[in-house]
């Protein structure tokens, strides 16, 4: 089974959630954990690799800019 954690907050918030990640890994050792993080928090990737099989990066700024641009498709930012 796979589980996706969505944590699009800032770097400090992401790091404060470490006890949660540790508990998830401990309680569900057979689950393949993935995490979706904001591109600003990409520097935490080496730390997160100890709990997550896959780290997915979301560029929030690019998406917000696409939301402001009426001529752009929102899906083009994803």
Question: What labels would you give this structure?
Answer:
single chain; 37% helix; alpha/beta; 4 helices; 78 residues
Can you put this structure into words, describing what you see?
With about 80 residues, the protein is an alpha/beta fold. About 35% of the residues lie in helices and about 25% in strands. It is built from 4 helices and 3 strands, in the order βααβαβα. The longest helix has 10 residues. The protein is elongated.
Summarize the structure.
The chain is an alpha/beta fold. Helices cover 37% and strands 23% of the residues.
Secondary-structure topology with pairs:
Blueprint lengths: L1 E6 L3 H6 L1 H10 L4 E7 L6 H4 L5 E5 L1 H9 L10
Element-level helix/strand string: EHHEHEH
Mean pLDDT: 88
Helix content: 25-40%
Radius of gyration: 14 Å
């Amino acid at each position: 089974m796979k589980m996706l954690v969505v944590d699009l907050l800032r770097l400090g918030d992401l790091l404060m959630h470490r006890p949660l990640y540790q508990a998830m890994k401990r309680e569900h050792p057979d689950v393949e954990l993935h995490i979706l993080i904001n591109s600003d928090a990409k520097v935490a990737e080496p730390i997160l690799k100890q709990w997550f099989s896959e780290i997915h990066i979301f560029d929030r700024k690019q998406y917000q800019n696409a939301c402001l641009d009426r001529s752009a498709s929102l899906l083009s930012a994803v």
